[in-house]
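Subject: two folds for Thursday's group meeting

Dear M.,

Sorry for the delay on this. The cluster queue was jammed most of the week, so I only got both jobs back this morning. I'm pasting them in the order they finished. Each block is the input sequence followed by the predicted structure tokens. Could you check whether the formatting survives your parser before we put anything on slides? The first protein is the one we discussed after the seminar.
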Amino acid sequence: MLSFITEKQSSWDQLQAEKRPIFIYGMGDGAEKIMRVFREKSIPLAGIFASDDFVRGHSFAGYQVRRLSDIEAQVDDFVIVLAFAAGYQSLVDKIVGIGNRHLLIVPDVPVAGSGLFTYEYCLAHAEELEAVYQMLADDYSRKVYANIINFKISGNIRYLMEVTTPKSEIYRKIIHLTPNEIYVDLGAYNGDTIGEVLQYTRGKYIRIYAVEPDRKNFKKLCKYLDGMKYVDAYHAVAWCKDTTVPFSTKAGRQSAVSAFGQQIEARSVDSILQNRPATIIKMDVEGCEREALWGASQTIAHYTPKLMVSLYHRNEDIFALPLLIRQLHPDYDLYIRHQLYIPAWETNLYAVPSKKRP
């Protein structure tokens, strides 16, 4: 069991054992999360640096923000901990280049929820992880699954670089988009994924349902959708039932359900569709994917829509969400792919009606 997991030492244990100075690259929420773990585990921090364009003589969390070139001129050998997300090629190339010069560790900290993803965590969930590994539809999905887990334990970006798949390949070879899609977009943001889908259907569709809870994003979404026919947009959280939930608005994509947020409307897919069909559902809802899946359970049971579900917001998503989808409907082929991103964000589950079905 778990023979596909080869990393045993967590990135945190590796950092605890380090004798060289450790510098964090980046500022913001990711750096704050990493620094909290540093304090809990008594990992010494030598300083913080940022890309040259962001260094203006300011400080972050009590540390003067420095340039990498200045640190390289002063310190012979040191370790870099990446504390921000990179999702476009030039930045990823830059990070890979830095990793060729220094030991680079990218610790996995969950976007939502708590706890750390370690080998011990994997052992505690060995049966679930093994079950998902065995049920995946192709060998490449199993390789992606293994690499993502080994990355989350070790923080070694090599595991991500080995299994990066372009979006175009996913849409063409797994999702197989047609001009007759009834598309439900949960976490529609500014309409970016709707645009991707329409690119592959040559602008054709039957109907689109777009759900976005962040007020500013929803405004951008409505602007994007303006003039399009057969589109319904909902300013709401995707949830397991119709209710209200506390929601915290942050910049960009990071808004999420939070105990400290303001009450906002929440809707389930089943309620929105009212027994009408869907052919494809996307879920990128910042850690609420489980609730969103339950909220679409009747639609999934009756219509078996293709599913595109984020697997990276919570530690347990990597096994809990595939198992839940199989529970809701057993006749799915499950694929996992990772798109260009450091850390393991944009690791997604793709569920399509089984080829074995009569």
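Second protein, same layout:
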Amino acid sequence: MTALSIDNLVKSYPKSSFKLHIEHLTLEEGSIMGLLGINGAGKTSLLKLLLNITFPDSGTITWTKNSSAAPNFIVHNVSYMPEYKNLYNKMSCGSMLKFSSQTIPGWNDSKAEQLLAVFPLDLNKKISTLSHGEKTLLYAVITFSKDVPYIIIDEPSRGLDPVMQERMLEQLKLASQAGKTVIFSSHQLLEVEETADTAAIIKNGEVILNDYLDDLKSSLFLLAAPEGIVIAPREDFRILAQRKQTGHKILLCRSTESARASLKEPLKVYDVNLRDIFLTINESEVYQ
């Protein structure tokens, strides 16, 4: 069942030439989507639109669980952890959690207790004295203690040590297993590849690729061609992007199995991972 659908979404900014334009994007219920893009690509702009922090010039965002047209839908159905953690600095960690339990719709006390065993915190410690990583752990407890169908996290592992990074990503997987739909943005390609089941790559305000990770890696490949050889797209062979490498050009391609098998020397064909896909798209011209 579709959990989220975006259609013909446009957001422009009066003092900037940047424009976000997403023709179509969907996410299945219980999925984990990794949102990828270089700085300024449009990841945070999209998250703000999803959260009704900003509003589109045109187009629609439809959350299908619990009816997105309902008043205060985001407050009652979405849990959000921003990249920069704005908390009440004069409070202790314990006071912040108590305040959250009294003010956040859908708060689950037993879940909060479980999370404090996963993300250990000194509850007596003032928030003003916390490191960035400790603030992230506190915000994670708050985020995952809100029992709602949708979770959105901006850069979940930023500032965490490797152990806490793994625990954070494990919570994303557990949320998905519990039927929640998760969207997280990241600069860490490996954590997206290991955690998400779908990926959306944004470049210059547009979603260039969006699909299940397994389908992306099975349907796409890299083609290395010596300079001077022209590779023309055809009906059963599409060039998505290309970048230069010493003496060669590297093309990201999608084709039928028979078309791929027909590619012979001096052309070389390579399987891809998410890193290959992301780097080739962002270092090249994207073909339409």
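Two things I noticed about the second structure. The chain has two domains: 2-204, 215-286. The two ends are 29 Å apart (CA to CA).

Cheers,
T.
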